[in-house]
Write a structure and sequence with these properties.
Layout: H1 2-17, H2 56-63, H3 76-81, E1 101-102, H4 112-116, H5 122-143, H6 154-170, H7 187-190, H8 195-204, H9 224-237, E2 238-239, E3 243-247, H10 255-260, H11 263-268, E4 274-281, E5 287-294, H12 307-318, E6 327-331, H13 338-345, E7 349-355, E8 382-387, E9 390-396, E10 400-405, E11 413-418, E12 422-427, H14 428-447, H15 459-480, H16 484-487, H17 492-503
Parallel strand pairs: 3-6, 6-7
Antiparallel strand pairs: 1-2, 3-4, 4-5, 7-10, 8-9, 9-10, 11-12
Helix pairs in contact: 6-17, 9-15
Pfam families: DDE_Tnp_1_7
Biased composition (Polar residues): 38-47
GO biological process, one term: non-replicative DNA transposition
Length: 513
């Protein structure tokens, strides 16, 4: 028994050594939770509760796909004519052409505000001041003067951001609760600004006061300059690792909060009218690029009815700045397709994606790899076909899982290690996908707990506060990778509280221990 335990441990250590780039631990935000685990590998079983990202595929292989295969797939003879073969060859990805990590060294004395202002600098805040005052003037010219209004200052705008950001620390939906006498009241910061003044700034707050005469994204014109600035700062402050993932992060309502809402409160809440896609570094969780698209409106993407086509366009937007670097991209079923991966390979972008016969564009893929055979498969059993350097993998683990990749050699084997089932053999691509997506899922589970809880009705404001949440999380990652973290080891909650107090310019900026 002891020998078996030592063998399993050595296998786990060998597997872990292949992913040493996953440097920030599962305990990414400085506190552990129920989702923390000693096992870094993603559970790719069909019945796994933690496998929300790919759980839909567990049934897709066993029940999805008729004998004819999904639309666009090839018969056996067509596949042979197109170059698909069961003869496997080794595939090697060239070395990564970048060194990853923070692009600039921060001092050990750097504060939470210093890291936040890498993304939201003073000139950005000054622009908010200018546009808010312009909008207030325009509004009052049209609807009558507001005797209670006076132009906002940069210091007040920072405090305004601090008050709203505090909802991510104390997890209260209404920022006005700060001035109440209830559970979420916070007298220590409420004295910095009156509730009446805060509500006036909230009423007139704007990033862009006037609609531009022309632009490529009219539907998001009120937020687009800020998104462009934020995107540029993400690119300038951090260089991601070779392995990155394209996905939709968890941005839906907090389920704990929803259970506390009355039916009347739920009816008043407006459904989110946008979707957010990101390119995220799998080694650290740093979000490198964001892409927002409106579900209704004139942003161009809404006109695309075909979901795989829409997601393919989003993927191209997210990867437009990483060509020629030998980056490896992991994708979910809605993005994975042979045509997209082939196009990326011409740009020296290598891919590893999960396939679904229901959600993926299966055009050009062999039917016999996409439908289940009559003979029951054994756990860990896999089949592979190749076309050039592209591999199509069908792997069984309580359900059929299919992967398309040109980033990992089909001749190399890996394994998924589970506490109860032990080691399960799999192609190396499956192991790599599991390891990196496991990290991102655990990161997102933690990350979603630190959203700004303030819920405005206007779509552009929802996008703005979500973007601020992303910027704060990115700031914490840079802080954790800097010398400042060795001086004061703040958890994510403490970092957020410190940032709030620094935005409010409170003398005592030490977080609650």
């Amino acid at each position: 028994m002891a020998e078996c335990g030592r063998k399993a441990l050595s296998l786990l250590e060998a597997a872990r050594s292949r992913y040493e780039s996953l440097q920030i631990s599962d305990d990414v935000f400085g506190e552990s939770g129920d989702d923390s685990s000693d096992n870094p590998f993603y559970s790719t079983s069909g019945d796994s509760d933690s496998d929300n990202y790919i759980a839909e595929v567990a049934g897709g292989g066993t029940g999805g796909g008729s004998a004819a295969g999904p639309p666009g797939s090839l018969s056996r003879s067509q596949a042979e004519e197109e170059g698909w073969t069961e003869t496997l060859q080794d595939v090697t990805v060239p070395p990564y052409k970048e060194t990853y990590g923070p692009a600039q060294k921060m001092l050990a004395t750097a504060t939470a505000l210093d890291f936040f202002q890498l993304f939201v600098p003073d000139n950005c805040i000054q622009n908010m001041v200018t546009q808010t005052n312009m909008y207030a003037k325009k509004f009052q010219e049209r609807f009558g003067s507001d005797d209670g209004w006076r132009p906002v200052t940069a210091q007040e705008m920072k405090a305004f951001l601090g008050f709203v950001t505090s909802t991510s620390v104390h997890r209260c939906e209404s920022v006005l609760s700060i001035w109440s006498s209830g559970f979420f009241s916070n007298r220590s910061i409420a004295l910095k600004m009156s509730q009446a003044r805060f509500e006036k700034i909230l009423k007139y707050f704007h990033i862009v006061a006037f609609r531009p005469s022309q632009g490529s994204n009219q539907g998001l014109y009120k937020i687009q300059p800020f998104l462009d600035s934020l995107q540029q700062s993400f690119s300038c402050t951090f260089r991601p690792s070779q392995t990155q993932v394209l996905h939709e992060p968890l941005i839906d309502e907090d389920p704990v909060f929803i259970t506390t809402c009355t039916e009347r409160e739920l009816r008043k809440r407006k459904k989110r009218k946008f979707s957010l896609w990101v390119r995220q570094c799998t080694s650290t969780g740093f979000i490198c690029q964001i892409s927002v698209h409106l579900k209704e409106g004139t942003d161009g993407l809404a006109a695309l009815k075909n979901k795989p086509q829409l997601h393919s366009l989003v993927a191209k937007q997210l990867c437009q700045n990483i060509s020629g670097r030998n980056t490896i991209i992991f994708t979910g079923p809605s993005i994975t397709s042979l045509s997209l991966f082939s196009e990326f390979s011409k740009q020296d972008i290598y891919c590893c994606g999960l396939l679904s016969t229901r959600k993926s564009d299966c055009t050009g893929l062999p039917q016999n790899m996409l439908v289940c055979g009559s003979t029951p498969a054994q756990r860990g059993q896999s089949r592979v076909m190749m076309k050039g350097t592209m591999s199509l993998i069908s792997w069984y683990n309580k359900g059929h899982f299919r992967f398309l990749t040109n980033a990992y050699s089909p001749t190399k084997q890996g394994m998924i290690i589970k506490r109860k089932s032990g080691e399960i053999p799999c192609p190396l691509a499956v192991e790599a996908f599991a390891a990196h997506l496991s990290y991102i899922c655990k990161y997102d589970d933690k990350y979603s707990k630190y959203f700004i809880f303030h819920k405005p009705n206007k779509t552009w404001q929802q996008v703005f506060w979500l973007s601020i949440s992303i910027a704060i999380n990115n700031a914490y990652i840079l802080y954790k990778m800097s010398d400042a973290y060795t001086v004061k080891r703040y958890s994510r909650a403490q970092f957020g509280e410190r940032l709030v107090r620094e935005l409010l310019d409170l003398d005592d900026c030490s977080p609650t221990q």
